[in-house]
Amino acid sequence: MSLTLEEVEHVARLARLRLSPAELEKMRDQLSRILDHFQMLQQIDVSATPPTAQVTDLINVMREDEVRPSLPREQALANAPEHQDGMFRVRAIFEDA
Amino acid sequence: MEYLVTIGLEVHAQILTRSKMFCGCSADYANAPPNTHVCPVCMGLPGALPVPNRRAIELAALTGLALNCRISHENVISRKNYFYADLPSGYQRSQYDDPLCVDGWVEIEGDNGPKRIRLTRVHIEEDTGKLIHTNDGGSLVDFNRAGVPLMEIVSKPDISSPEEARRYFQKLRQILVWIGVNSGDMESGALRCDANVSVRPAGQQEYGAKVEIKNINSFRFLERALAYEIERQIRALKAGEPIVQSTRGWDEASGTTVAQRTKEFAEDYRYFPEPDIPPLRLTDAWIAERRAELPELPDARRRRFIEEYGLTAYDASVLTDERAVSDFYEQAVAAARVRGVTPKDVANWMTGELFRLLKETGEPLESAAHRLRPEYIGEVQDLLNQGVITRTSAKEAFEASFREGRSPARIVAERGMAVIGAGDALTDLVRQAIANNPKAVEEYRRGKVTAIKYLIGQVMKATRGQANPQAVQQALEQELARE
User: What pTM was computed for the model?
Assistant: First the structure.
């Protein structure tokens, strides 16, 4: 199964990756092979196996509705390349840039 | 040509909890300085482990039950992936395949009588952060709101007009606030909605292209935005222009909807089960516990007020609009009945004097109720029924109770408002009036019966209006007959 270049571009865009034409080709090849692998897995009969998203066997892990201390703001902002008035500063947000 | 309008609403309601959905940060973000209610979980830092808030799940299920939904036994939290600066982890934790609540309905007053608006689902998710755009080409991000518990309530496209959409949204708000799962505060964004609207010529089977109007946070905006959008679409259809499926925003200043991004890729959220949160398995016993938590809902209470208390549809409706008012009424009725005061009289005091005074002071009943206690209503009406005070005095005592927080009986006693009844005090005043007004007495004796009116007036003046005029007339007639 081979992906089209458009499909690879679409996935790259969703992941906010800018790929060169050479990289796009390379990704098309690699992603196609991964999909082939899944195609192979899909031949296995799993009709008797319930859909499983987790293997921990845990259920209902919840916490009580209690407020606990938050981070000091200096710590919350410590890794931000830029901040202003106690807020993270980012570049202006352009719709679907 | 006639056009059919089809509207569906997606309502976002913050769940009223103390802490956030997946971490212990305070959910009370409204007045907190930016980024002071944040932690590694709600900032999406690597390695942080989210743990669902039990109360948020309970309240969301309670909402589902109040909206006649079925509660799912198997629940999966999913990641909805997209990039935006207000979403720190690059995905929103939400629900996809297995929402917590499915298939409900809300009854509203439709354009042609009572109408059920069916619900597709109610699911749980987390709110995003807040963005402030600066005028020097940047955006500032505050993550206090990120991770606040949120419900999305999705209706079927059963709504046929802007008015119905407003009534549906109002009804939802009433129920959510009533059962205590949402603050109802639309200005702060605790309750908001997106509206999907399409128009098609009558007779056409398939729906027209759907336009989504985003982020509406007032009933009036909802109604106006839909009215505008429907008009716009009909005009386009008449001109033979195609309606493009798109997202628009309501601009209150211009009174128009404005095209936003056309999201070619936006629907590609690549949902997958959140690996960090084990499934939630809700048992029948757990669901039964939630059902037991559900209070009597406004519609049921309204009907009961009509049947049990003999109220008019209007009174029953205004007295079940808000839970606090409704509860106060029931407490007032219970106390009043002991004194033989009717529920109807209690309703009249509330919809008349009490609502007037609340409007004047602009406070909610919850705060006024610390002064004017529910039992005072029966008390003041009882004093009136017993003839102890006049209607004017009753209103005065009621208002004083409302403002000063003392019982009407005490106020009546302190201010000497009690009617001077047929007793020695009245007889003395009557004799005085007869002695001081020989001319009127003379006229009365000569057969001018109306002259007694003047004497009644004199006695009333002497009591500063505190006497019962009928009692005064009786006493005068007796005294005049005696001499």
Answer: 0.85
